[in-house]
Design brief:
18% strand, 6-stranded mixed β-sheet, 2 domains, 9 helices, 27% helix, 10 strands, Rossmann fold
Amino acid sequence: MLKILELFGGIGSPRVALRNMGIPVKAIDYVEIDEKAVRSYNAMFKNELPYKTQDVRGWNLKPDILIHGSPCQDFSIAGRQKGADPGSGTRSSLMWETISIVRNMGLWKPRIIIWENVKNVRSRYMVHNHEWYMSELEQMGYISSYALLDARDFGLPQARKRIFTVSILGGKEFDFTHLKRKPMANIRAFLERGPVDDYYRVKAPSMLRAIGKTGTVRRLPIIHDYCWTITERPDRAPGCGCLPIGNGNYRYLTERECWRLQGYSDIDFDAAAQVNSRRTLYRQAGNSIPVPIFESLFKKML
């Protein structure tokens, strides 16, 4: 039986991956301050081990695996690269809370720690935080390795590149080269059948001017085989792309399609859609981690 701890847990991508794999889970702890994300999480897992409270702390759980997708905004170019130095007060500096939690676990520490963040964490301005993070874990007995993984290499037609750092307690470096990958599916398999509501049609003049543009700040690419990185707001440029619907019109991806493109099932989406708004569902998809990447990581680890 596996025990995991999800910090900055969002809508529970690693837990969905384990469920998809049929891995029995004895105890799960989950920490998330966004009440709407908690709402979706509880709706998705209401028939499984319940999540009791929103502000759980994890150092008494004794997890086998700790996963944290700490806020990325201040590492990213879009977030103006404010950084994540300890004490800076930025959202991304919350990564150091994970170090504090692991240190407070005492003699029992997670066997494996997984951290996901934007690729800019390895940029010349941010790399010192990533190196510092791995150094702190090394002092506690962990050996860390990292790789840039793209959702397209795990079957999802979404150009989403993220740094994954795997830290193993008293073990060897994690070999990312042997992760099970699979060919990217065509995005048509992820789209809703038939016409969708006019709500999704591109109407704003600023967005209409951005259609078809790539490589610029104000861009809205036309989707062909795959979309660009799903964000919190597909109706703002730069966006993940738009689909032609005839007569010179285009539409955005629906919330359901965005969830599918992160690896979630329609059952998961329908559960979350019962308790949250359209805008919130978009945001939750944009902030999530692709489920198939976790599946591949867990398969190699377990």
